[in-house]
Amino acid sequence: MPTASNEELFYSDRNLALELVRVTEAAALASAHWTGRGKKNDADGAAVEAMRKAFDTVAIDGTVVIGEGEMDEAPMLYIGEKVGAGGPAMDIAVDPLEGTNLCAKDMPNAITVVALAERGNFLHAPDVYMDKIIVGSGLPEGVVDIDAAIDANIRNLAKARKCDIGDITLCALDRERHAELIAKTREAGARVRLISDGDVAAGIAACLESSSVDIYAGSGGAPEGVLAAAAIRCMGGQMQARLMFEDDAQRERAQKMNPGKKPDRKLGLTDLAAGDVLFSATGVTSGFLLEGIKRLPPQRAVTHSLVMRSKSGTLRFIEGYHNFNRKTWSPN
Predict the structure, then answer these.
(1) Any binding-site annotation on 86?
(2) What is the C-alpha separation between 175 and 108, in angstroms, rounded?
(3) Where does substrate bind (predicted)?
(4) CATH number of this structure's domain 129-272
(5) 176 marked as binding residue
(6) Domains in the chain: boundaries
(7) 40-55 and 4-32 helices cross at what angle (nearest 10)?
(8) Residue 177, annotated as binding a ligand
(9) Residue 43: enclosing H or E segment and its boundaries?
């Protein structure tokens, strides 16, 4: 039987996971006011402000390690900012609005994201590119390898899934730098699903049977890679990554943030997000991960969120009904 203190920690952990839903809901409701209005900066600013205010009620002693940038670059949720109402020491990774362009253009897969881990358990990732490869759960360990050719990875994945290569779908960002990745995938006989933005949602989708995505690969933002890793830890999937540097200054910054470790080493899942991890995301626009905000007259809205804990491996999809006449804040 667990001790009383362990029981208290267990129930606190569960309650904290649900508190995170309120944080991502607040950011999603605020940014949804700007959906389709073509103003991505306004949408992002609204999400940042709402998320920062929502953290004031969360019972943690939090430090932002993945956020909106350095202190002189971001007014809120900057790297190193302290948030929370007091409690256990936690590191926080946030993307108040992943897919600002998606929100501004009312395109699929804009979400708000928060992940928590005990102090020191997230990779401190600078704002550089990160090469990533992600597959779901229930597969042999090492079924894919970031250093292997993509066609070899696809063949190994199809063999492990006991399916034809033609049944495998790879998801990647639609970028010129991925031309060879896309061509080699198609030459191998697999399908390619391209997205314009939002690789946190895409990485998570590779771990969801209902998403029709079997593997995510290619380069995207390093902060987004840490957030995806937090979710994948909860889902039992596999991920490998490697930071990519454009110059010596970026390499030196990564070295400074993670002293004693090679900046360009191959990163496993627990190198990105270790220990007990909590994750929450709320949909802003509908996509293959979550439904978006649905407004209901008068002054009401419906949210759809996903909250996960690595300790239990439970995924909860939460539908929330909000009455703005009763809230202490307004998303407008």
Answers:
(1) no
(2) 17
(3) 98-100, 129, 175-177, 197-199, 221
(4) 3.40.190.90
(5) yes
(6) 4-122+277-323, 129-272
(7) 150
(8) yes
(9) helix 40-55
98 is in an annotated binding site: yes
Residue 95 known to bind ligand? yes
Check the annotation: does 164 bind a ligand.
Answer: no
User: How do residues 180-209 score in pLDDT, each as one tens digit?
Assistant: 999 999 999 999 999 999 999 999 999 998
Q: Mean pLDDT throughout 6-33?
A: 79
Distance CA 332, CA 316 (A): 28
Q: Confirm whether residue 19 is marked as ligand binding.
A: no
Q: Is 22 annotated as a binding residue?
A: no
Phi/psi for 215 (5° steps) reads -155, 140
Q: Is 203 annotated as a binding residue?
A: no
**Closest to 60 in 3D by CA, of 112, 17, 7:** 17
CATH fold for the domain made of 4-122+277-323:
Fructose-1,6-Bisphosphatase; Chain A, domain 1 (3.30.540)
pTM: 0.91
pLDDT category, 246, cuts 50, 70, 90?
Answer: very high
Helix (H) or strand (E) holding 309: strand 300-309
